Amino acid sequence: MSEAADDEELKVSVCTDCARHPSLKKMIEADLANGICAFCCKTDAKVRNPENIEPMVMLMRALIRFYWDEFSYNSHWGGEAVLELFNEADNPVVEPFAANEYYDEFDHLLQEPPYPDWDKGVSIYAGFDADGMRMLNSAISRSTPRPVGDLRRRLDASNFSTIESELEALIKPFLADLKFVLPKGGTWFRARTGFEARFLRSRGFDNQIVRQPYMGASIGASPNPGNGRLNREGRPVL
Length: 238
Ligand SMILES: [Zn+2]
Fold this sequence. Notes:
Layout: H1 3-7, E1 12-13, H2 22-29, E2 32-37, E3 45-48, H3 54-67, H4 103-111, E4 128-129, E5 132-133, H5 146-157, H6 160-171, H7 175-178, E6 197-203, E7 206-212
Parallel strand pairs: 1-2
Antiparallel strand pairs: 2-3, 4-5, 6-7
C-alpha cells in the first residue's frame, strides 16, 4: 500500500442489514455505496455512501433524541457513552456492534460537530447557553411539544373549526413524510376493539371464557355517514 493510501481517513458507515429503524433503512438506500459497516464490520457491505454521510448522521442523532433521555447517554451526568445505546439488544435503531473494530471511527462520526446550528443539524446534548448549563433533554417520544399541548387544551374548551386551520398549519411541514400510497387491490380488514358477547364454556373443571367477535352489521360502516369511528363528528376522514 502506498503512503498516501495509509494516510487516508478510514470512512465508516452503516449497512442496510444493520439498520433496524425504517427511516434509517430508507436513508441508507437513498444513496447506496460499497463500504465498511461499523456495526457488522463487513468491509464490502451495502452502506450509506460515506461521501454523503451527514444526512444519515443527523437522522441517527434525531432518533437518539426521540427515544432516549439525555440522562442515559450524557457521561457528564452519569450516563454511558452514546454508542452504548446502540449496544442495547432491543434498541429500535440499529443492530448492536458485532465487534469494536470501527467503534472509535463511528463514535467520532456520530459526535462531531457536537453543536451544529439549529437549522443545519441535530445536537443530542442540551449544552450551554449564556446563563450556563441548560436542563437535560428528555426523550421527544415521552414529551409533548408545547404547541401540541396548547392545542389539546384549547380543544377541550373551544369549537374544533376554530382550531382546525392552526392544526393543519402545524402538520403541513411533515405531510410529505407522513404520506404513503396504498397499493391497489390490497385486502383490508375492519377492526373494532371489544367483543359482541362473552360466554363461559364449561368442561368439567376446565372453564374457559369464549368471546364472540363483532360480525356482520355490528362491524360494518357507521349508520351515519361521516361519523365513522375514527372521525370527529360530522367530519369524514376515513
Ligand atoms: Zn452492517
